[in-house]
Amino acid sequence: MTQLPYAIDAETPLSPSELAVLRAQYEKEGEMVGVQTKFNYAWGLVKSNVRTEQHLGVMLLSEIFRTSPERRRECLYYLALGNYKLGNYGEARRYNDLLLEKEPANLQSSNLRVLIDDKVAKEGLMGVAIVSGVAVAAGIIGGVLLRNLGRKR
Amino acid sequence: MADPGQKDDFPDLSSFDDDVSVISTKGLEAFGRKVTSTASHLIGPITDPTSNPRYASAMSEVSRQLRKPALQRGVFAMARTTPTDLVRSRLSTTEIHSRALAYVPDELLRQIPEGDHSYSLFQGFQASFPEFTDDGSGKSKKHRRRVSRGRRLLEERPTTPDGTPESVMRIKQEKTNMMHSLEMLGIRKNMTSAEIREIDAKLENLVGMRKILLERLANLEKDEALLEHDIIDVESRLEEAQDMVAEAESVALQTPNKSEDASGDESAPGFMSQSIYDKLPGAAGSGTSTPSSKRKPRSIRKKSAPILHEHFKPGSMIRSMRAHPDSITALDFDAPFGLMVTSAIDDSVRVWDLNAGRCIGLLDGHTASVRALQVEDNFLATGSADATIRLWDLSKAHYDPQGSGFGKDEEEDDDGIAFENPDDLPVDPPAGSMSDCPLFTLQAHLDEITALHFRGNVLVSGSADKTLRQWDLEKGRCVQTLDVMWAAAQATALSSGGDTWRQTNRPSDASADFVGALQVFESALACGTADGMVRLWDLRSGQVHRSLVGHTGPVTCLQFDDVHLVTGSLDRSIRIWDLRTGSIYDAYAYDNPITSMMFDQRRIVSAAGEDVVKVYDKVEGRHWDCGAGISEADEGKSPAIVERVRIRDGYMVEGRRDGIVGVWTC
Question: Does residue A26 lie in a domain region?
């Protein structure tokens, strides 16, 4: 499994016309759509910045995962990536860790793990910062009030 | 700072994390980008191009990593996910919905086989849409475009003088680009072949499904046939029961004190009256002792049309059976998988159940071989070389298609229940199973009957005594005699020699039947004779109103529908005439004389002295062969020549010179 896209690849959206090409191809093949076409469209969707499109992309990827077992292993990575983009870090971690378990040497996958960790950490920190900020503000206000009260007395 | 050696340094950078994190993020990002671009600029041409994007992204990852202090990561590493994610996954309905759709259950995750694909889906994506997956730098785009037009690339080369390091560089770059394209082409090739394999697998799957469905259809038809048979049984029993009730009623009318019983019987629903019928003493006895005298002709006619054969591949054999020890002289059947009647030189006439493929019985009566026969609606007409025509009612045969208990009761002679096993062919049918079939015999012709046709109550026959006779089947009498020679002479006298008896100079004429074929439709009669003429008669006036001249040999077969008349002749040709204008609409010829021909909505099948049946597909305008000669030629066997052929709704029956009858789909 050497040829996987890095996470950075998923961050560059396709232009609408390019995505339209992929969609047209996908819709043209109808019910008997091939795995590759399906993936192409799914990947184009995952790359998008629109959240609903990303959702659809991940859904298609999971369909591929279900229907073609021989593609499951690499699909794990795409699923992890898609969920990472969606911000579903729990899911992303679930798939990515499974893949890493099977392929410890997978560069892209270990890269993604770091990214997920980062994102979780950053947003967690932000949460802590907000909470602590609120606490500090409350403390200050409380202190001021107390002092005012104290001064009044 | 941007020398190729930089590449070696970067793995160490992560160890600098803590020191470098002091530097502002923006600066570092810029640094990373710069490293990327310069490195790709300088290293790109020399190193493997595939390492390029990876290197670039790796470098950008480095810069990302540098942004986050290790400490920060350490603190929250135990958290599986972020609070926002948790909130979203719990509260937003659309999120929950899409997650449920995209969720992959654990059992699926556990079944992950080794991928043995030579390329990844992403590679496939890259290969099919190279323009989408560019690294974003216009430079590589330009290169690819140039590579795609290889000719221009070669023309452009001389613009820079050879020998300079620049040109070496450029050529090398072009080479790597071309190698890249080659690789991409390889992937696309692989992809396409994989897709073809996928489709093959799907096709195989579909073929398997079709086979299963075909089997299901066959089973359904079998069930249908069984049920139909039961229905017929019930119908006949119901009829008898009703007769009994009517009888009882008439008795009751004479003896008023019993009228209550009778009216009770009458009002009872069908099932009840049937059970009453069963209880009535002597009912079963009377039913079996006089099975045909009391009973109305039981219809063997199918209530449902079998369609199984339509789904077979055209030209596939349904059945083959040895019908007679001698050459088949005539055969006909009423419907696909219905009843077939065959006759051979050995004077015997056999009735067959095409569904089961077994002989129902022998029709005795003719003292010479039957030359012409027709089956229509359970009625059979046979014209024999003994100059008689016999009519038979096939519905009166003591034959039980399924061999069930009811049928056995009905059999007066139980000796013939040997057709339980359809495999041992030919099974001798029970003697006398056809004893009730003969209706009447038409005797008037002076020589052998060579052709006959009936429709409704009108039967016409053609004989070697050079006359045609029209019979009324209701009265069983000859209504009209048409003298072909007289008509020919008449025509000569009236119109100046347009229609005469033409002496064809073919040696085969002596053996040919004087009247080769006939068909009647209400008052219209078409007959083909040994002089190669096809005459259209008006039965009301008894005159020939049109003659179709064209065949140069005796006409042996003829059939018309509302538009066309098709004739086959010993002159080897099939001619299709337009009935309205009397002109030739189409014609084609085979290698040998045509002995038999018939058409249905789509095909014209002919027996043309070969071991295969010649089929002309009218819709596709295609000629093809169908029959034993194709499949058995491979096995080194040479089947006998096909003598007679009949077709109805794509269901074809052919009789050969060795007495074998083959059933095919067309």
Answer: yes
Q: Note whether B273 contacts A: Cβ–Cβ < 8 A.
A: no
Nearest to B618 by CA among B597, B601, B642: B601
State pLDDT tens for residues B339-364. Answer: 899 999 988 999 998 888 888 888 98
Out of A4, A69, A114, the one facing B122 most closely (by C-beta) is: A4
> What are the b/e assignments for B483-510, b being 16+ CB within 10 Å?
ebeebbeebeeeeeeebebeebebeebe
Residue B595: what pLDDT?
A: 93
Residue type, B621: G
B77, B80, B113 ranked by CB distance to A70: nearest: B113
DSSP H or E run through B329: strand B328-333
Integer Rg of chain A from CA: 22
Q: Average of pLDDT values for A119-136?
A: 84
On whether any CB of chain B is under 8 Å from the CB of A43, the answer is yes
Does B457 contact chain A (CB < 8 Å)? no
Query: What pLDDT sits at residue B286?
Result: 39
pLDDT in tens, B129-156: 766 654 444 334 444 444 444 444 454 5
Q: Which residue has better confidence, B285 or B237?
A: B237
Closest CA to B331 of B355, B349, B306: B349
| Closest to B109 (Cα-Cα) out of A34, A111, A55, A69 | A69
Is any Cβ of chain A less than 8 angstroms from the Cβ of B89? yes
Structure tokens belonging to residue B603 = 């095909």
CA pair distance B500, B298, nearest whole angstrom: 48
What is the rounded distance in angstroms from the CA atom of residue B313 to the CA atom of residue B310? 8
Query: Chain B contacts of A125, Cβ < 8 Å?
Result: 72, 75-76
Window from A30-39, B511-520, B614-623 with minimum mean pLDDT: A30-39
Residues with Cβ within 8 Å of residue B505, at least 6 apart in sequence? none
Residue B150 Cα, gap to closest chain A Cα (Å) = 25
Position A153 in a domain: no
Over chain B, what is the mean pLDDT? 75
* Burial class, B596, CB count within 10 angstroms (exposed 0-12 / middle 13-18 / buried 19+): buried
| Residue A54 and residue A86 in contact, taking contact as beta carbons nearer than 8 Å | yes
Mean per-residue pLDDT for A86-115?
A: 87
Q: Does residue A143 belong to any structural domain of this protein?
A: no
Any domain includes A125: no
> What domain range is A43 assigned to?
7-118
CA dihedral B394, B398, B402, B405 (to 10 degrees): 150
Q: Is the pLDDT of residue A114 over 70?
A: yes
The residue written with tokens 């221009």 in the block is B152
Task: Find the CATH number of the domain harbouring A76.
Answer: 1.25.40.10
Counted domains in chain A: 1
pLDDT at B273: 45
